[in-house]
């Protein structure tokens, strides 16, 4: 199994180009099922998760080819409606094929994803929403099964803001008969990007960018040529790395408004941040200041940056309080950061972090994608060598991370 070996203590310096967003690429890939034909998705990150999703689409009968970051998907020949457990269990977002399959074929057999490393991750809103639109879904041997489904417009008010459920129901509504109103939808840039892609494909969606979407179903959609938006979580992770190492880096190819909440917190921690149309420069302080963070749906502070922010707080002057309101158990990084000398007390979904002057290198284990990112940036700032095991988690969501960090002056290598 691959490991990362990092020798800490070097400030990051230079420019880094941010990749396309994993969480925007996956819904875009799913949406290609809605319109038979050849789609071109540009700026798709080459990650384990996009490869897994490509495999799901291939099993359904689509033809895919990658040239660099251009992904061409031909969904004309799709002839299966089954997404198997073996793939869905490795990547929950595979469930995004459910609505497109129901919309296009009136049937689907998609594995339920099960739990994940940081606790339960329900899909009840996806299922109840589709049921409200007329899909009589059954759970059979661990699979969500729909037969003879004819999706019809409905009014659905989500009681929790969910990215996944918003994506799922939006894809269900665009080809449904009649009008669907979705209330309390997620506003994450990934969701808006999907909405824009669907509009380019011929969908009729009103209210994009607000908490209420009104979708008038159309008979058919056209294949599209679209560009995946930059990855705001990758960008914010690099910004956090600059903050922790007292570095000075420029993030290129970004949309600053997509990660304003993490940038604001880094400014509060003492970073100097300069924004242009598509670049952000971050200059870290000699030592970050303590900050308090509460995760919220967009435009709030993203749960996907909680672990990395705890790493920053671990070396801050003072005591920080970090609360995750989205995923209450998402703290597996805390024990690993403690092995590097961090002082973190966990009280339910609240981490109280007492900053130490310096972390020290240790052998640690990556436990999930963002937890792994927090260990990497902690290691960049730590004294001595850190060996991070199980880094396949990082390969799910960061494109050529060690190359990009190496180019910024980090001492980092992959070994196996
Ligand atoms: C997406 C992101 C993930 C991010 C998360 C929150 C993708 C592929 N993944 O995950 O990186 O951490 O948003 O920003 O884009 N919930 C329910 N019932 C449901 C669905 C969700 O109760 O049917 C709850 C969840 O338990 C959670 C909250 O809603 O507390 C938000 O989850 P959601 O936005 O759905 O996360 P994902 O779409 O799975």
**DSSP summary, beta strand count:** 24
Can you list the strand order of the major beta sheet? 22-23-1-24
Shape: elongated
Helix content percent band: 25-40%
Distance between the termini: 6 Å
Using the CA coordinates, give the radius of gyration. 21 Å
| Bound small molecules, deduplicated | uridine-diphosphate-N-acetylglucosamine
Number of helices, where a helix is a run of at least 4 consecutive DSSP H or I residues = 14
How would you describe what is shown here?
- By secondary structure, the chain is an alpha/beta fold.
- It contains 14 helices and 24 strands.
- The protein has a four-stranded mixed beta sheet with strand order 22-23-1-24, covered by helices on one side.
- Helix 12 links the parallel strand 22 and strand 23.
- The chain binds uridine-diphosphate-N-acetylglucosamine.
- The site of uridine-diphosphate-N-acetylglucosamine (UD1) has 21 residues, from helix 1, helix 5 and helix 6.
Task: Write a compact overview of the structure shown.
The protein is 31% helix and 25% strand. The chain is an alpha/beta fold. β12 (204-206) and β13 form a beta hairpin.
Write the layout of secondary structure elements.
Blueprint: E1 3-7, E2 13-17, H1 22-31, E3 38-42, H2 48-60, E4 63-67, E5 70-74, E6 82-83, H3 85-88, H4 98-105, E7 108-111, H5 124-132, E8 137-140, E9 143-146, E10 155-157, H6 163-174, E11 179-183, H7 189-200, E12 204-206, E13 212-216, E14 225-227, H8 232-245, E15 248-252, H9 260-268, E16 272-275, E17 279-283, E18 293-294, H10 306-314, E19 319-323, H11 333-339, E20 343-347, E21 350-354, E22 363-365, H12 369-381, E23 385-389, H13 392-395, H14 401-407, E24 411-415
Parallel strand pairs: 2-15, 3-14, 6-7, 10-11, 18-19, 22-23
Antiparallel strand pairs: 1-23, 1-24, 3-5, 4-5, 7-9, 8-9, 11-13, 12-13, 15-17, 16-17, 19-21, 20-21
The site of uridine-diphosphate-N-acetylglucosamine (UD1) has 21 residues, from helix 1, helix 5 and helix 6.
């Amino acid at each position: 199994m691959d490991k990362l070996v990092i020798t800490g203590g070097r400030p990051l310096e230079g420019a880094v180009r941010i990749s396309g967003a994993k969480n925007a690429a996956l819904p875009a890939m799913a949406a290609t099922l809605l319109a038979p034909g050849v789609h071109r998705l540009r700026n798709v990150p080459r990650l384990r998760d996009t490869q897994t999703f490509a495999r799901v689409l291939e099993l359904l009968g689509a033809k895919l080819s990658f040239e660099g970051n251009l992904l061409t998907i031909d969904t004309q020949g799709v002839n299966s409606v089954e997404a198997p457990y073996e793939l869905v269990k490795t990547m929950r977002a595979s469930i995004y094929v459910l609505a497109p399959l129901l919309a296009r074929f009136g049937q689907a057999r998609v594995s339920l994803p099960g739990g994940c490393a940081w606790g339960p991750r329900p899909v009840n809103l996806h299922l109840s929403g589709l049921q409200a639109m007329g899909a009589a879904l059954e759970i059979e041997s661990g699979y969500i099964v729909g037969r003879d489904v004819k999706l019809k417009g409905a009014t659905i008010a989500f009681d929790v803001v969910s990215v996944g459920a918003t994506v799922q129901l939006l894809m269900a509504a665009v080809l449904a008969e009649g009008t669907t109103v979705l209330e309390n939808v997620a506003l994450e840039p990934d969701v808006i990007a999907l909405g824009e892609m669907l509009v380019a494909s011929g969908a009729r969606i009103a209210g994009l960018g607000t908490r209420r979407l009104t979708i008038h179903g159309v008979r058919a959609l056209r294949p599209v040529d679209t560009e995946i938006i930059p990855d705001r979580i990758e960008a914010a992770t690099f910004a956090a790395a600059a903050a922790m190492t007292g570095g000075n880096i420029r993030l290129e190819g970004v949309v600053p408004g997509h990660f304003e909440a993490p940038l604001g917190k880094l400014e509060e921690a003492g970073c100097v941040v300069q924004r242009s149309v598509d670049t952000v420069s971050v200059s870290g302080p000699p030592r970050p200041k303590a900050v308090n963070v509460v995760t919220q749906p967009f435009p709030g502070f993203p749960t996907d940056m909680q672990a990395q922010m705890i790493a920053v707080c671990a070396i801050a002057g003072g005591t920080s309080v970090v609360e995750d309101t989205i995923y209450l158990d998402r703290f597996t990084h805390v024990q690993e950061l403690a092995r590097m000398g961090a002082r973190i007390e966990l009280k339910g979904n609240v981490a109280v972090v007492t900053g130490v002057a310096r972390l020290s290198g240790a052998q640690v284990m990556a436990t999930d994608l963002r937890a792994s990112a927090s260990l990497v940036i902690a290691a960049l700032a730590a004294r001595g060598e850190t060996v991070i095991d199980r880094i396949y988690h990082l390969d799910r969501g960061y494109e050529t991370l060690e190359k990009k960090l190496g180019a910024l002056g980090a001492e980092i290598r992959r070994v196996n």
